[in-house]
Amino acid sequence: MTNYSRAAARSLACLMLLSQTPVQPVLAQEVAAPAKLDDSDPWLYRGSDIPHDPDWHFGELSNGLRYAVRKNGVPPGQVSIRIRVDAGSLYEKDSERGYAHLLEHMLFRQSKYIPEGTAIAAFQRLGATFGSDTNAVTSTTQTVFKLDLPNATPESLDETFKLMSGMVSAPTLSASNLKSDLPIVLAEMRERGGASKRVQDAMQQVFYAGQPLSVREPIGTVQSLTAATPQSVRAFYSRWYRPDNVAVIVAGDADPATLASYVKKWFGDWKASGARSPAPSFGDPAAPAGADPRNPVGETRVLVEPDLPPSMMYAILRPWRQVTDNIVYNQGLMIDSIAQAIINRRLESKARAGGSYLSASVNQDDVSRSADATFVSVTPLGDDWEAALKDVRAVIADAVSRPPTQEEIDREVAELDLAFQVPVEQQRILPGSKLADDLVNALDIRETVAAPQDVLRIFRETKPLFTPKAVLEHTQALFSGTVTRGLFTTQKAGQASDAELRQALLDPVKPDESVRLAANAAPVSFDKLPAIGKPAKPEAELPVGLLDIEELTFANGVKVLLWPVQEEPGRVMVKVRFGGGYRSIDPKDAPYITLGQYALVGSGVATLGQEDLDRVATGRKLGFDFDVQDASFQFSAETRPSDLADQLYLFAAKLDLPKWDASPFLRAKAAAKIQYDTFATSPQGVLNRDLQFYQHGEDPRFATPTPAEIEATTPEGFKRVWGKALHDGPVEVQIFGDFDKAAAIASLEKTFGALKPRTPAPSTADLANVSVPQPSDKPIVLHHHGDPDQAAAVISWPTGGGSMGIRESRQLEILTQLFTNRLLDAVREKLGVSYAPYVYSSWPVDLQAGGSITAMAQVDPKSVSVFFQTADEIAQDLINNPPTADELARVTEPLRQQVTRAASSTSFFMSQLEGATEEPSRFGTIRTVLYDYTETTPEKMQALAARYLGKNASWRLEVMPEGKTSGAIASR
């Protein structure tokens, strides 16, 4: 076990001792290891000089199947299994479009060891949650089956490998399977439709014209899918699902040789039939005949989408070729990264200064083994798209004509050094699931993986190569290619034509050097920033009685929770909770809530504006996330021990020395107005825009502000609203992770201890004034502008709120999981009218009301009533009849594993203890968390359903296509 696992075990032991029922540890029981693995010839590294990551062990079976295994104890007890099939939608014939993805579904349906329709239940009994622990993904080039098995024991590992091996090597693929899965896939296709899908399709068609990628979306077509037969699907399966086309990747809390033994046991007898099919050709991008070789602009298209923001993308395309993944190749990639980072920083600086575009970026990507492309993305401001494109191209023209300054290079090198250094510091806490996914991705792009320390070493040894001349040469290569193609999505017909877009890409531009970082620019450092105030020592320092957490109290009212945990090396989590949240904002000032989420941080602190904040953070791990919660605001960041003092300064300075730069505010206004119309493009977009508003009884503070409401805001109003929010209410600081306690307290004394006394927060009575919707069986009806076959349905039952009811809220989570399983079975598996229906529970701990149980699904319009009827029937059955013991276990076991895995990290305790310095009872409720989420009875669930899911207790909402109506129409 690693040190991290010992720390996790300590946290879990706390939960077990505090729980009201004994719980078995989740640490894996390891069986006696088989013979030592042979790592003399790891297949991933053949032909490469990249150092072999010694934690990965590679092997090949006699049938050609390859595997890689490694030990990893994060989270403890978990084993992550990935089965990668080297075939995606680009491997399909014209008549097979969508088959790779259809097969992904059918393999879960029925196979050698899984009876029809029982896969979800089988994996739930093993503690795996459907959708998060158990999943699969099909791309253009691969299909990957994923399982994160918690509480892995020899017995559960053996069973899991057995089930997964049967899925890929012996699926049933019957007519019954096809009949069940086809409606689900078509429902998924419907839910992915709309304006965004049209843009994605147009981009594929334009950028990859003449290549299979232009018409090979994994979802397929209605025509090819509805024409599928068991025989045609099996023909695709037989061609690509064979052991010599499959890799099994396993990372988890078990001996690598033991993991390898399961691969050999369950995949070793899989036999390939016939010769292996060669991979199809993916083609090359080609320039049109007669194109200027110096600027070979090819296909361009203007797409009119009234509800989408104007956006432009052009791509410089080159043929993709498989490379030898060696050190020299990776050194080139590092220089490419520096070149792109310099341009992106210049583009961002120009956007911040105000002008023709809201945002712009460049990015190189190897796309689906079909093209090596450099993409340029632009979001214009206003109607003058040509000026926006010209301004972006001018910044790029400067980058390809003159080398950058050494100061610019050094800045990006410092950022990359940090990016490579953090994984070294945090290597012991990297999750096994991420390590497995990283190796799968490396296989997909035909490259290797390296240990974090080797990546950092190679990068630092490469620093002498990072010269202005080298960066210029790589920049020029990034913007040279076989052909350039462009797509412009505009809201107005007639604003541009295909020919005009093509000409705009052909027109020469004058290089713009105005946003280069000036040589010898004045340094910015924390040492030169103003002090927060007079340092003050804490008045009290007491243990809270939970683990090693201590609470500090300062005379100004600031309270701090400290938990030093050196077993989480290199990571420190910081949260600052302050003020009154949504409920403290005057409803007439509601639009400023959205603008604050966009612009409050960017407005600056002390003497630092947005550009200065970037510069002072160069080479540092400093964050500044901002969140508005029900009854508080929150800053949060993940930092490092060496950067903790400055992180605390940034947060404290934002409260006491805020800067009010108008530029981020004006940019946020533009972004909010542009984004608003996009919500109407789909049912899900409308829900994102309006659901919280209706869930909170049409409280304007939870509404998405309209463009007219945004336009009416001013910089002065922004400062008034957010200046008060930063100044009012108590402050709670949490610091959990790898830090020196004495040093942290010294930093707190100079920052949060030095703050002025806070203005009292709004009264509890004011904060508890929560509006909830009135029960009604007549739906609120909203409309979207998307595809006519798309709709959404929501039914919600109000529950409660407040920390005194937190234990009941956890029991409600069990109830909603029961509801979700039944809804999935009825609406997805049996009726096939929705791809991913779900039920969730919300319970505002800081308020005394406002919680709810909410069920929702995206469906076709004619199935909205079917969804409501089904949800009502499930709710009533939960009231009338207790769930079976097996049904309950399929919920509580995954929940047990979720809680125990989450509790292996300090971030779990941090989230559970938010607000505990003001409400100490929260220290007590964490003691029963495992019990509350996992221990119940069928009768208790029935009683809970009767309390909340009554027939006359719900309200409902539906989102219909424009022109279709039912119920009471609501408008905003």
Outline the fold blueprint:
Blueprint lengths: L2 H16 L38 E4 L5 E6 L7 E7 L13 H11 L9 H7 L8 E5 L4 E7 L4 H16 L5 H17 L3 H13 L14 H5 L3 H11 L5 E7 L3 H12 L29 E8 L6 E8 L8 H26 L4 E11 L3 E10 L4 H17 L4 H20 L6 H13 L7 H11 L5 H11 L4 E8 L7 H9 L33 E4 L6 E4 L5 E6 L7 E7 L12 H9 L10 H7 L8 E4 L4 E7 L4 H13 L5 H15 L6 H13 L11 H5 L3 H13 L3 E7 L3 H10 L13 H4 L12 E5 L6 E8 L7 H25 L7 E5 L9 E8 L4 H17 L4 H18 L3 H7 L8 H5 L3 H6 L3 H11 L6 E7 L6 E2 L3
Parallel strand pairs: 2-6, 7-11, 14-18, 19-23, 19-24
Antiparallel strand pairs: 1-2, 3-5, 3-6, 4-5, 8-10, 8-11, 9-10, 12-13, 13-14, 15-17, 15-18, 16-17, 20-22, 20-23, 21-22
InterPro entries: Metalloenz_LuxS/M16, Pept_M16_N, Peptidase_M16, Peptidase_M16_C
GO biological process, one term: proteolysis
Family: Belongs to the peptidase M16 family.
In words, what does this structure look like?
It is a single chain. By secondary structure, this protein is of the alpha+beta class. Among the domains are: 31-267, Metalloenzyme, LuxS/M16 peptidase-like (Cytochrome Bc1 Complex, Chain A, domain 1, 2-Layer Sandwich), CATH 3.30.830.10; 297-506, Cytochrome Bc1 Complex, Chain A, domain 1 (2-Layer Sandwich); 548-579 and 606-658 and 731-758, 2-Layer Sandwich (Cytochrome Bc1 Complex, Chain A, domain 1); 585-604 and 660-728, no CATH class. The protein has 32 helices and 24 strands. A hairpin with a 4-residue loop joins strand 16 and strand 17. It is globular, with a radius of gyration of 29 Å. It starts with a helix and ends with a strand. The model is unreliable at 1-33 and 967-972 (pLDDT under 50). Belongs to the peptidase M16 family. Keywords: Hydrolase, Metalloprotease, Protease, Signal, Zinc. It comes from Novosphingobium pentaromativorans US6-1. Residues 1-28 form the signal peptide.
